[in-house]
Amino acid sequence: MDRRNFLKSCGLIAAGSAMAGPLAHAGSLFEEPLALPDGAEPLKGLNLPIRSLEPKTDRQISVIIIGCGNRGNTYARFAESYPKAVKIVGVSDILEHRRTRLGDIHGVKPEMRFGDFSEVFASGKKLADAVVISTPDDRHYKPCMMALALGYDVLLEKPIAQTEKECKDIGDLARRNGRIVAVCHVLRYAPYFLALREAVRSGLIGDLVSIQHMEPIQYAHMAHSYVRGNWRDSKETTPIILAKSCHDLDILRWIVDRPCKQIVADGDLYFFKAENAPKDAPMRCTDGCPHADTCPYNAIDIYTRQKAHLGVFDLDGNYDPDFILSRLKDPRYNSYARCVFHCDNDQPDHYVTNMVFEGGITASFTMDAFSPFGGRRTRVMGTMGFIEGDMTQFTYWDFLTRKPKYWNEEVAEVPEYAGSGHGGGDYGLMRDFVEAVAAQDASQLSSTVDVSIESHVMGFAAERSRISGRKETV
Ligand SMILES: NC(=O)c1ccc[n+]([C@@H]2O[C@H](COP(=O)([O-])OP(=O)(O)OC[C@H]3O[C@@H](n4cnc5c(N)ncnc54)[C@H](O)[C@@H]3O)[C@@H](O)[C@H]2O)c1
After folding, report:
1. Cα dihedral sign for 36, 40, 44, 47?
2. Which end of the chain is more exposed for a tag (fewer CB within 10 A), N or C?
3. From the CB of 224, is ligand 1 less than 6 Å away?
4. Nearest C-alpha to atom 36 of ligand 1 is from which residue?
5. What CATH superfamily is the domain 61-186?
């Protein structure tokens, strides 16, 4: 049974979930792949750096998790799988029940359980080899600067920080203090993207000329995260082109392998605003909405019936619909019960970006809320061939032979990455981070802060262009 079917049959989580139940993110693992052309043969022989997730190291590194939510739990779970290589020795979260839960799983001493991130650094002493910073977007810069000042290596969730200057500050301090900062651009570590990039780099399609890349967010995921949830306000967090799609800009920059020179963007918030609310829609879906049966964004349906995106409700394994409903009515969680037309959101629900890279290579990127599936879809155009993929498999057409070939994890005999979100990228990154810290060698990482800043700069430029209507030089 392949990984897709294995996860499907277990009803297991998809990309990015940690504490969630049945469906943390209804996403690409649950859709059918793009159909393969008749007669397609396996594409073998790509030279891929894909290997077991077990870190190759004789040294156990110690880590403090700062932010014990979805992402913090994801990275901590890696330590449960590979305890010889990494130990969680500290936890920090402003929510007591979250740090207690994670602290108990890892046997963290009472004196190493912290509230606000500043408490981790208050003693002025370094208490572990590394910290994982998985706090909300507006709480990356300060803990990262504090950690670097004390000599920690850092696994830093994306986006790096909220402004270009702050991103550069982090890069400068990391360089000055000789520290490793790995940014969680996890897609770089996913076997699918490693293979897609290698197919381009190996010259299969001749010269790379152009890429079309799409990030379909999936309508319920959009409502959960960018209308009702944590990333709804671009000023509190970051503009959606960074909050959601810095991965995509990063992947494009990484595949093209040349600097981006110019970027232009358009898009806005079309749908999720008060003027589109149906007549008599109450403020919350739990207030007896007359449109409940005709609204695909109905919170009661998404959470209690579809059981999607449950990671935010601290359910501790109780997926009973009545219990989930009680959470939706609980003031601690009821922001997720809000009518999608009555939220304090400003993130665009459609966003298009065109880029020109050095040498005239172009890329277009579309982020869209209104799709039935998540994941990514990519077409790569070269002078001698074409590639089309959906984040689980891709097809390659050779213009000379006219014979299609396909690549997926079975073709490449990828070792089992089950349980690792983002197409295996979450654990692939953790493995490389653990090895890099143990060996004190940042070159083992492909998403160092320096390269990651470049794609963040593209994101900030895109947002300036979207607002001003001008082309931006990067
Ligand atoms: N790499 C990826 O693909 C990916 C995917 C999802 C989210 N993210 C990013 O990861 C980060 C965390 O996202 P999440 O989904 O885990 O969010 P989350 O809300 O589940 O977890 C964040 C945790 O940080 C805690 N926290 C808040 N302020 C704190 C403080 N001052 N000190 C200590 N803890 C504090 C919160 O209580 C919460 O438990 C965000 O920046 C997000 O954008 C990255």
Report:
1. negative
2. N
3. no
4. 67
5. NAD(P)-binding Rossmann-like Domain (3.40.50.720)
